[in-house]
Specification:
- There is one protein chain.
- The protein has 249 residues and is an alpha+beta fold.
- The chain folds into 2 domains: 191 residues, Porin (Beta Barrel); 40 residues.
- It contains 1 helix and 14 strands; from the N terminus they run ββββββββββββββα.
- Plays a role in short-term synaptic plasticity in a subset of GABAergic neurons in the brain.
- Keywords: Cell projection, Cytoplasmic vesicle, Endosome, Glycoprotein, Membrane, Signal, Synapse, Transmembrane, Transmembrane helix.
- This is Lysosome-associated membrane glycoprotein 5.
Length: 249
Amino acid sequence: MAEQEGENLSGLSNNPDKAIFAVRENGTTCLMVEFAVKFLVPYDVLALNGIDLITEQASFTLPRGAEIEGKCGSTESEIHITWKNNAYILRIYFSKEFRDKGIEVWKISKVQFVYDTSETSHFINAYNPGKHTASTHRLSALVTPAGRSYVCTAQQTLTLISSDHQKGITVSMYDIQIQPFDIASDFMFSEPYKCITDQRERLEETLPLILGLILGLIIVIILTIYHFHLKLTAAQPQLPRDRSMYKNM
């Protein structure tokens, strides 16, 4: 895969937490990522006794002003997002594959995060500061039919394991729209494929309305039947209840 040009389009978003990145090849968009990302990174700090280590947790978000690099291929693509003079590097790897019944899909196959605990804006008094790398293992996330973009408002969380201290790094993505392959129009996502969580939330929102409409329809049907019953009853001749009146008939 040849190196391509990366572009930061975050200024197009009104959401201050959301970043928009694109990778282009020969002047055409081949990969687009739009999301907000939050990191939770545990790190060691020397205790006050100067002997024991305690664990603190750094929390920060992906900045909109990050720098972008990427690669596009027919079955493998990737995007590298860096900030703070390469103190932080987020790498996301995508791949295509065929599943049951010959259905082609794409997915995130690996996420890697490089962070430098000597960077003091997020890591305060870190013990033995330096660069660390955390990665996912056997990942198959955001599985999406080929030719479509993945869309998800709900938070999607990945756990990465740091190779040196075996600490769990949490990477949470939300307000997502991603497409690493088969972009038909420049800077335009293809048909969206909504995540299951969003579909479930949508159903939970609309289900009370649907049930209310069904209940209203049942009430209308019952009232209509009752109205016709009253009309039919009123149209029938009424026989006198006093049997002595039959003699004069």
